[in-house]
Write the structure tokens for this entry.
Amino acid sequence: MKPLRQLRSRTIVLPFENIDTDRIIPARFLTTTERSGLGKFAFQDWRYRADGSPDPAFVLNQPRARGAEILVAGRNFGCGSSREHAPWALLDCGIRAVLSSEIADIFRGNALKNGLLAIVLSESEHRYLLDHPGIELAIDLVAGHIELPDGGRFTFAMDAFARHCLIEGVDQLGFLLRCEDDIARFEARAA
Amino acid sequence: MSTPRTLLDKVWDAHLVRAETDATPAVLYIDLHLIHEVTSPQAFTELRERGLKLRRPDRMLATLDHSTPTTRADANRQRHYVTAQAEAQVHTLEANCRKFGVELRGWDSNERGIVHVIGPELGATQPGMTIVCGDSHTSTHGAFGALAFGIGTSEVAHVMASQCLLQRKPKSLAVEVRGTFAPGIGAKDLILHVIGIIGINGGTGHVIEYRGDAIRALSMEERMTVCNMSIEAGAKAGLIAPDEVTFAYLHGRSLAPKGEQWDAAVARWKTLHSDADARFDRIVHIDAGDVRPTVSYGTHPGMVVGIDQNVPAANSAQDERALRYMQIESGKSMLGVPVDIVFVGSCTNGRLSDLRAAANVLAGRKVASTVRMLVVPGSVAVQRAAESEGLDEIFRAAGAEWREPGCSMCIAMNGDLVAPGQLAVSTSNRNFEGRQGPGARTVLASPQTAAASAIAGHIADPRDYLSAGAAA
Ligand code: SF4
């Protein structure tokens, strides 16, 4: 994984609460055996109308979404299934960070392992971002804060290990494999 | 004196390869890794690309369930997959299992079925274990006092290569259920009721331990239904301390310990309960007597209501949107809402006792002519057991379709889907928009309520059918 320290982008806002993983990537697209190529199916049932044409009312189809890498979503984003296809799909359509006041556990873990920043903010900070779509944010992972266009700052907490892995580009599987001696000892003890 | 510990503490402590620190999560050993065709291919690819082997293929259990057709193979033994990609996904797991040396409960196995149905059925799921699967309903196995949770595909690769996961310890939430359930009320009604109370994010960051006399009174299959939907409250896992009911269920199952090992295992399992003064981070009290037949009315599993109570008023734009999507009006009960499809199955309610509950209501009656009803057993073993009791005959005679085992309409990946705008009463676990097909409207319910609604052609109270039909 490539190290990730800073991210600067405009936001796109999806204000709905409880956006579940079936919304992010419907199950009918899970028959793939690859990680890539899922971006075109992200939010499928919101993005396209019944006749298959893009719905202009959906924010990701609007010109202002072009190039935006930060998604601000309503509370409890990513609830539901464990499908890692959800962060894969978001990354594949250019999203590099998801900001909310609450993010479901499995989704958050999956996202961070793939270099998709999943950042939880306070209710008031979240509300501010929901109310100001399209503003440019600078996320500084090293400092643990987000800079607003007016110079204001939101600090955020992230698990120390997850942050370290993102900043240094640490491969978690590599880390686990280096625990081999302890694992073997554990197995010998348990047998 | 040692400090009192919760069941979660005990299972957690027993699996620590390395304890957590501020800088690093715990390295947690995994006893059993369940895999299926949907969330494993990319993990196998990663192993291949990195030249890694499976560390403990003997601790894996593999099956085919999500993308598999539920229609029978034709005369040429051909199976009709929904797409070539679905078929390729199944073949990929078959090939990966051959190559990496994992025993697959595949098409030719009598032990195939939904991953969360076969684990317990085979006795692979045991108290005190850590169990993971690339599937959020892994929480089902917590019914045995195992710490069981869903993981993503990156973590599937972690477990494949190291038999371990990097984890922060979750918090504990006790859900204490006391009293007795009224007749005709099932485990599904209870868990929908609980999610309605704590909310779909009420369990986030927590493991729920279900406790109390009303939980102890549940059968193993009912306990699985309860733990299964813990994830629908956002919880990492559900747990129920093992007891005599658990031991009786496991005794004699093919992968359960035998002879002296069995005795030793039971002695060990008996220590797996929260100590009397163990501290939980949170406690919620539920009165079993308050639980009515419960159904969902909105587009997430926390939007539930007693079947004879009125759908609450929408108090956000979000709720309004959900009601519009569902075409449900607030201020009225769900009784009488027309039904197009009834689905009985899934890892929530696709076990033998669920099929019996549905058959009990259906016996001697007919599915309404406007309703299509699918009954999909959770596994080949459930299918055979149901057939040997003649349940399949009851379903067919009533006009329902009796299908081959699999996830089917729960996730609608295999071609079994609800058409846009149709309303399905489903015994599965998720009523998200489009979960059962684009535009599908899902009402979650117990098998009894599903069967009663199939007969009536609209959402119906199972108690009306049980009182009249129970005599037979
Ligand atoms: S039955 Fe449904 S919830 Fe259960 S494993 Fe299959 S798809 Fe997932």
In short: The pocket of iron/sulfur cluster is lined by residues B 65-66, 114-116, 135, 137, 346-347, 407, 410-411, 428-429 (CB under 6 Å). Residues 180-190 of chain A form the longest helix (11 residues).
